Amino acid sequence: MAQTTFEEISAADFFYRNRDIAGFTNPSRAIFVAVRELVENSLDAAESHRIPPDVYVRLSYEGEASKDTQIYKLRVEDNGIGVPPRHVPSAFGQILFGSKYKLKQQRGTFGLGGKMAILYGQITTHQPATIISSTGISKTYIYKLMIDIQKNRPLIIDRKVLINKDMWRGTIVEFTLEGDYFRAMPKILDYFKQTAMVNPYANLTFVDPKGRLYKFTRITKEMPEPPKETLPHPYGVDVELLQRLIQITQYRNMNEFLRYHFHRVGEITARKFLEFSNISPSKNPKKLSHEEIVRLMHMLKRYREFLPPDASCLSPLGEDLLRAGILKELKPEFVAVHQRKPATYAGHPFVIEAGIAYGGEIPKKGAFLVYRFANRIPLLYDEANDVSLRVITAMNWRRYKVMPDMPVAILVHICSTKVPYKTVGKEFIADRPEVRREIANGLREVARQIQHFMSKREHVDRERKRLGVFSKYLPKIAQFSMQLAGKEKPPDVEKLLASVKKYGEEEA
Amino acid sequence: MMERRKEVLKSLQNLGGRFYDQMDKGNFPSIDMPSRSTDNIMYDEQLRQFILGERRVKRSARNIRHVKPFTQLVWGALFSNELSSQRKTSTLRDVYYSAQAYEMTFKDQQESNNIITDLETILGFSREDFSIFPEERSAVFGDLTIEYTVPGYEGKTLDLTSHPDGVLIGPALTSSEFVKTSADKVIAIEKGGLFTRFIEENVHRKFNSILVLTAGQAPRATRHFIRRLNEELNLPVFVFTDGDPWGMHIAMVIISGSANAAHLRELNTPDAKWSGVWATDIVNYKLPTDPLDEMDMKRLYELQKDPRYKDPLWRREIKTFMKIKKKAEQEAFSRYGLTYIVDEYLPTKLEETK
Fold this sequence. Notes:
The complex is a heterodimer. Chain A is an alpha+beta fold. Chain A is built from 13 helices and 14 strands. Chain B has helices at about 1-25, 65-85, 90-100, 110-125, 170-175, 190-200, 205, 220-230, 245-255, 280-285, 295-305, 310-325, 340-350, and strands at about 30-35, 40-45, 50, 55-60, 90, 130-135, 140, 145, 155-160, 165-170, 175-180, 185-190, 210-215, 235-240, 275, 290, 325. Chain B is α/β, with parallel strands linked by helices. In chain B, the strands form six sheets. In chain B, strands 10-7-13-12-14-15 form a six-stranded mixed sheet, with helices on both faces. A three-stranded antiparallel sheet of chain B has the order 9-8-11, with no helix packed on it. Chain B has 13 helices and 17 strands.
């Protein structure tokens, strides 16, 4: 048997070597991802305590890096809950694998927050990151940090404590990184616009390297219900998760293990399930062999009696906020939104929200504008492969009086504890039948609403045209007849016009 | 001719008066007229031409789809009235452009043509009566003296042999009076080349005839002119065309009129004769030929079903064309020398179709 040597590497080292996975594939993508990760952290920091977020982002030019790339300084400020001083070094200077034993809808695509961005900045520019934070107490802490990549530990370069007279609360992250802003610019601006669309309660400010200011102002302080943490549902577990749970559990028998670590499992359900799968209720979970764990996973998936997960762990935007966001950012003539009831795929709950908007400032492109969101994050890449696009393409829009050459925007938002991304890039949603069906139903509902609007508009339009035709031609007929008959003055057509109008209103 | 002009003016003004009164009484102006749809066009054995049936259509300014064409119709009437009272003439193309001065637009030439046809149908006069003429291209040559009635030429006479290219059959000639002729027949010819040959060969003198160039399918003014020659001067009419289905039909339209003009009378000459080139001539004279193509054959099948083609002569010729699958132009006789057609063919055929 061949000998294989395993080299243990630190988490930071792992991401250093595999930064493509986190999205830092090239200088333009890297700068986009860095902005996105930090903005999302900031939004989460405010939202988790129902604070309407104020996020300020500034990119400033620091110098040339190479022919195609430049050095930028990225600064992101928020009014979130702040980071307690003792947590600052590890929160920003140590990369941890996520240890999720509880689930709720989260923004971060990796649970790594901005740490990857900071790491990327350090790799490319060898400069420390500055973190300023206060939880709203009388002191503000300023740290200058670097990451020891091999040991995966924060190196504190400098630390200062300031008096926080104004009781400011929030976090400021500032670091330098290499990137290609001008190539990334369209995506970054799209990102802000679309983020503003699904976060209408947030103030977003962005100052770009040329000093241009982009401001997205909140129109409401209403915020969606924050998600509750929930246990994993039995249908959604894998061997890895089971092993981790077994490692940390304090329960010494299977019945309690199931009841206290899984969603929708009570005493009776646990008992029945153990009977069904022929496992002794008194068995100590820590004594399960690897084969038994694999079998447990299969049995969990096979047992039909578990209730579907509830959706309290999800935080969809809600129809009112979605409508407000679309109206604010797209300024359409018409908008329709719809929130589907929660559904599940493979044990993971999800909610689809759909919207459609027409006219106003929406541009005509010759194709529908499609906005895709997952857990309130805009998805900006790989549109063509997304299940939403497949659903949209498969729909018979003519039936709904909507054509691709009209100024129409379509929005699909999926909220889930586990968004079914297709690839590691996490930019588009996989074509799962349950998800596809929900998207299709959501879109059909908003399509019906726009059809209604279109019919009414068509009618009003037709009526206006109709009246236009009569008021254009009747006076001419009067004029020509008068001349032809050799009369002095034209006959009065006002009465005829009025009768046409009355007739028109009856029709409407 | 003057009487007819007054009648036309009167009917145009009456039409305006009718609409004026309707509107003055608070009603939407409307008019009804015979339908010109194909199922209302039928062949009248007695008149020996197409006529419109009983079905009528109503045009009303109350109807959203009618209001624009209705306005165009009233404008058309007004425009014709102005032309006729000022004794000016115009063409269909003119109508199309003149409308723009009145902020009346026609989508295309076809739309404005349709309006003029509506006016013809309503009033029972043809567009030439409204002083609207087609583009002229046909001509006449022969011993006929006419007297003009157009302004500036009233009373002036012209001998139609005075120009060796022939005289254009335009508004002035159409509205002229016939004064005298020594001719005893009319020969209508499809093509300009042969018309010129006939003049050069003195056909008008040798055969005592008035020569009319139809230049392809004869315009209405020319068809009306031929009818007048036949009716007013009592001259028999002989039509010479190419030996193909299209030439055959040029003769037929002169004789029996067209479906397009089913709403009009006095455009056809029922007693005119088609003298050639027949399919049987192609065989008998061993003319150089071209094969009939797909379009030609299709046309023959159509003609076979046409009620105008029921006489034995026509049926025989259609059959012969179908059998030999060949066609010949009038110029084909040149294979026997340039004068052969005048010296040999023409006298034979005139005699044969007398």
